[in-house]
Please model this.
Amino acid sequence: MSNWAAAFSEGGAEEDGLEEDEVWESTECDACGSFDSDLYYCLSCVQTLCDTCWEEVPAHGRNKSRFRFPNINGMKHEKTPHHVLKAIQPAFFTPPNDASYEAMLKEDDQASWFGVRREEDEKLPILLQDHGRFPELMAASSIDSRKKFMQQGKGPTRVVKRTPILVSFVGQTGAGKSTLIRLLIGLKLDHKTSNGVRPQLPVIGSAISDIATSSDVHLYPDPATIQTENPILYADSEGLDGGERLSLSASFRSLSTSDSIAPPFVSEGSFRAAFCSERELVWSDDPSRRTRDFIVAQLYSRLLFTFSDVIVFVQRNARVIEGVIETMVEWAAAALETAYNQPILPYAVVALNATDESTPEELWDVNVSTSAILSSFSGILYKNLVFKRHVKLWADRGKIVTTLDELLGCYFSKVQIIRIPTSQSPNLMYKQGHQLYSEISAAGSLAQVRKSHLRMLLNSRQLQAYLDRAFDHYSRTLEHPFDFVQASFLNSPVPNNLGDNILEFAIALMNHQIEEKQPRVGKEIFEKLSPLIASCIMIDAIRHSVLGTADRIFPENMRATAIIYRCNNTRIGHTSKGHQLQSGIIFKHGEYFSNITFANYRDTFHSLVFMHLSDILSKLGSNSDDSLLQQARAHRLHSDVLKSFYSTYKSAETLGIPSHNICLGCLSGSPEHVLSCEDVLCSACIEAYGRPQGRNAYVLETCPIGFQHESTIEPQYICSKPKNAGVRLLSLEDGALHSITQLEVLRRVELELLGKISVRSLFDMISANGMASIIALAIATQEWSLDECASKFLDIATQSFSQSNLRKTRKLLGVNKGALAAKYRSSSLESSLQKAFDSDAVLFGPESRCLGNTSIPKVMITSESADGGTTVFTNYHRGNSKSLPYKVVRPNSVKGEMKIWEVARASLTFSGHFKPFKHDATERTYTGHGGYPSDPIEVMQHESERLWPSPTSTFPDAVLSIGTGTGLNNSKFKFSKEATERMMWKPARAATSEKPEEEPHDSAWNQFLGTLPPNYPSSKYSRLDVQIPHILPEKDDVSALLAFQKTVRANIRQEEIREIAMKLLAALFYFERTGIIDEVSDEEFYIYGEIHCRLPNGRSEVKQLADLLTDKKFDNPAFIFQETHGPEQCFPIPSCSLDDMQRSCRFRLPGIRIRLSRSMAEVDAVLRVTPEEKFSISGFPRVMQETE
Model:
């Protein structure tokens, strides 16, 4: 270490030395004492000088070239700016004493990403441990970014899709990997904006120790990019050939005595702990495979080569560059064939560390250095035994290699060589460090561009999922390759067209043949598929009224994607490797091709589909037939084809079809309805094969698919939102135990409607998170009354938030230092949720789709994923949508579906109360909503627009957001801790004024309103929050919950409840035109239509609605249509219609005629409850257009 570098660390006493996070900086000239912004340091003189004083030193002056001035301690008189020293200081800092060094090593444990754990007993297995470092880094930096968005007034759901660049440093122990990472971080560390936050830096090796500094693989963020869309992460791998001695960090690390799989440096119950995992290395039973050298060279190499965008090979001795390249080739070759469908090969940078400063100036340029070194090997490519063996290996694969550059190109996308000087040349070190950073940044960006072109660019959430699968895979075997494409199915977008679904079917058939040990013959697969495809094309044409014969209907460019027969690399993997067998062996170099593709089989396949399509269309007869009769005939023919195809298989699960992503009835519709047999159909297929029960309801008694399971199913009642009705939305924000307020408000709404209409019939979609998710899930999936729901809520709260369930709170160490560990144990919460909800019932399943007498609202529950992105769980399915600031969880099959209690648990992981929730089936972790304003209204708005694009109105019928109670900051009274069975208050400080507490949820609501167009109808959007004239109890104070519930009931404003209830009642009714606009004159137009009710006929709620409308609270209810500035046109509800509703549960009103002064007039239609109270029905006000 040079004198100037030593000066950073020396000093003996602590007050004289510098801590690692301090910046060495002089503020005045040592010669004249002036304060100059431009100060320089002389390494030989050991002085800080201003520009003027520098020239006065003889060794620095103009005549320095005429005299030979001695260099003190071998250091040159080099004019080094202070900003250069500050930037490179971290690369050479060493602690002043052993105690500081030990503290640094222990702190560096926080950066540990993954590694192995070996017990002294050789009989015990070796464990591969994931220390949760990557998701912690992504979540912490994402949270910081989102805080900035919130401070700037942007929406809480604003999430940037982040795609990390992984840079791995590999080399011999002591080569200087950690030093280079420290240099790169120091160059990009802005001391002016770091706010005193200590950067995370690896610990460099001791100059007097021959033991490796650290073990395992550590991960460090680049401070310049960590909060950007493309954060650079540096992976510091344990050194090659480090031997079996414990590293210094491992010797200092304390052993864990708990049963937790989290290492000792990760706080139990913390955010990071939820992502810690361990796997037994099954292949480590052989003693030769238990050594650290083997694990580093064989296991770590596979993981880093497979996932790195850039690999930096560090070598300290430039004179042995030939050995470095040998190591590179052998290291890469060991990993190359252990993964297929790898999107790209990594870029490589060779860093020749501690290069002598006397090296010619031109060789410090990376391009010149690379060219010079690689060209120097032109004569020995066939003399070096390692190179010769690999050249022959590729020749056997059909690729002729003539230069070392070509050989390296077989293993890396590109190789660059850069020289790094010693610490004696800080200016050159600064320059080369920036050059190294530029090479890494450029290579990482290019890697991302190429991955994006191949549609294999992984965001942080996807990358963690791939890493989990890779950890699983390489723990089981080192011989069999890891398949990127197979892993991609976990995160692939939902197929949303017939062509993609045909591919899914073809793949499923191929895999089924493999499992049944049948030969994979593409021709037979497509021959079997062709009748089904032809019939699906026919059904799609009939449903969309496509006219013509098979020549017209048959799509000219029908797409059937490739099915791989021999080569396991898809088009993605071919770019980087060539042809690769399932065993991983690369058997041929060359471009992608498939012997079973639509292109090769197009003519025959077209002929088969066209033939079957022509045949089935001929059976339909003339299109002059009545359209309804033709549709019925078409569905009967299609049903025969379905049964013929599916009857040879037991179920969709055994066939391997992703049944929750494809409608098995038509291969093109969105699979929305799960039958009791677990087959899934779209709404169009339900209408085709179900028995109508009213206008928008169907009963399905048999399964039309025809698998070998029993076709008769439990009768299933399915009700959908009428096409001409608007949308009614309910948002329930998280308030922890204060969410009991929302239950009380909903209960009062039901009471205002005399208990005749259930809340679940008043809304089309309910969104919620946190404790409010319990309420939403109960309404959408259970047959509980609101009183029963309140009872369950109290049970869950009492068990989960009790004092006996408290756990020790610890501060989360590492990057996210402000986060808190869980306050309560999660076991009681999970058991109470499983007790309340059927522990096996899934959210998107038959259990949640049939609740007896009522229609079922869509429900969406929000949570946060590990990287801070909003995640949405739903009881519905819709087509895939891109460019949304959140991700909808939609597994392929029922096995991956979240159970109802798991959804609630995933959303209940709010900051400070319960630890993150890991879903075992998918290995995904959810972290609640991180303490941010949690009103999920904005996400619900997005979802409703995609589910129900409104044909009649731009705006919803009703949007209701219910708060969790607002108290007064300066009230004279607050809740008593003893307030359990009765309302009990105790004095607080005297108030100077009484102002409501500022709630972040109100801010989120106002923020949402700000996103609406200026002309939005404010009457449609309601925010209801109960004002409590006291200081509220803590949100987890279960001892005050009953008193709080009673207080809420006493403070609900009746006039607000009345208005909300009547708005929702009026929105039950909607208008449908029955003919064209009748134009009598230029100023007289008539529209004919009918008023309908959303409540499906035949259900008891229709009778209860009649009881409600005839109650004394209503004064001759009627429907009134009124053109803007025009007269009212009143249509009373006939008594005979009310009688029919009470007797036969049918809502049927006589047709009506509406007079308009112009065809494009805006009309409002209202339900008159009393002479003074009128509320718009669904879809109004609006313009009654001809195209409606």
Notes: The chain has five domains: 23-78, 98-148+164-191+199-251+273-476, 493-562+598-719, 728-807+822-969+1021-1060, 1068-1183. The two ends are 81 Å apart (CA to CA). Residues 98-148+164-191+199-251+273-476 form a domain with the Rossmann fold fold (CATH 3.40.50.300). The first helix runs from residue 3 to 7.
